[in-house]
Structure formats: C-alpha cells, structure tokens
Design a protein that fits this description.
This protein is an alpha+beta fold. It has five helices and five strands; from the N terminus they run E-E-H-E-E-E-H-H-H-H. The chain is globular.
C-alpha cells in the first residue's frame, strides 16, 4: 500500500512522516511519532481517551485520519507540562487524586485545558458538560470535576 508524505506541527515542532491512507491520527501519534500519551479506548469516538487539539479544536484522534494532519497543528497531552513543571490542571489532578488507572486521564486533561482556555471561570455544570465526552470507569468523576474547578480558580489568580 502506498504511503502519503505528511508535514504538520505537533506540540510546536515541525514533523514529517509517511502514513497509509487508513491510519488514524491516533495511530500516527503513537506509532510514527512515539507520542503515547493519547490512549485508544474505543476506536469509535465514544470515550475521549484519545482527545487532542487539532488547529485549536478538541477532537478524538481515533476519528481523524493521519493524512488530514497535512499543514495542520496538533497539540497532545505531551505538550501540557513545561519540562518538569506540571500544568496547574495536572497538579490539581494529583492533589485531588482525580485519577486511578490513567487510561482516560490524558484525554480529560486535554479537554479540561481546552475548556479553561475558552472559559476561565466555568461553573460545575459547564465542566460536567464539557467533559461529558470523556468516559472514566474508575473515579466517579467528582474528584475530576473538583480538580478542574480548583485549577480554574488557581489559574485565574496567577
């Protein structure tokens, strides 16, 4: 099968890779670019574990083809921390014990960051609505919601 040459920006870095027409963005991130933070939970866009930002829009990487990355910008969970310094959301997830097995956590963090960039002072209902596309089988969501609200409050102060 022929492979297509793709040039894109991933986490601020220009990248080039070859991919087959049927490979998803998630496949490319994990297998070609070795960015394994985004997880495959369902391969049908139902769980949100593979959530990434594509040209500033929250998407499920399992539903986007790798060839669609041509000339576009992708931001993954790997871009969230600044070196060893955690993003406030990551720090609050640790402080609130808002994670367990970790499969859903990268997608939830990416989605929560997207929310806080659009709406720095969300209500609990807005956080719940925004994260509704991210399924978690372990935590029961309460700690996740509290962590996002706490991070939002801290980010507004700093």
């Amino acid at each position: 099968m022929a492979k297509i040459h793709v040039t894109a920006t991933v986490n601020g870095d220009e990248v080039e890779f070859l991919c087959e027409l049927e490979e998803t963005l998630l496949d490319v991130l994990r297998d070609e670019l070795h960015l394994t933070g985004s997880k495959e939970g369902c391969a049908s866009g139902d769980c949100g574990a593979c959530s990434v930002m594509l040209d500033g829009r929250l998407v499920c990487a399992c539903l986007v083809l790798g060839v669609e990355m041509e000339g576009r910008s992708v931001e993954t969970i790997e871009a969230m921390a600044a070196g060893d310094e955690l993003h406030p959301l990551q720090q609050k997830f640790l402080e609130h014990a808002a994670l367990q097995c970790g499969i859903c956590t990268p997608g939830i963090l990416v989605a929560a960051k997207a929310l806080l960039e659009k709406k720095p002072d969300p209500t609990e209902t807005e956080v719940r609505f925004w994260l509704a596309g991210n399924l978690c089988r372990c935590t029961g969501y309460d700690k996740i919601i509290r962590a996002v609200l706490d991070a939002a409050a801290e980010m507004r102060v700093s």
